[in-house]
Amino acid sequence: MTLAELAREIRGETEVVGDRAIRVTGVQHDSRHVEPGDMFVVRRGAKHDGRSFIDAAIERGAVALLAERGLELPAVKLPVLRVANVADGMAFAAAAAYGHPAFSLDIVGVTGTNGKTTTTHLVRAAIDGANGAPVTGVVGTVGHTFAGRTVAAAHTTPESDELARVLAAMRREGATAVAMEVSSIALVLRRVAAVRFRVAAFTNLTQDHLDFHASMEEYAAAKMELFTTMAPGLAVVNVDDPFGAKIAAACKCKVLRVRTRPGASTDADVYPESVTMSGDGMRIALRVPGPMSGRVELDTRLVGAHNVENLLVALGVVSALDLDVAQAAAALAFETGAPGRLERCDGPGDDVIALVDYAHTPDALARAIEAVRPSAKRVVCVFGCGGDRDPTKRGPMGVAAAAADLAIVTSDNPRTEDPAAIAAPVEAGVMSAGRKKLTIAAAAAGEAGYLVELDRKSAIELAIGLAQPGDVVLVAGKGHEDYQIVGAEKRPFDDRTEARRALERRRSRKEA
Question: Global pTM?
Answer without folding.
Answer: 0.84
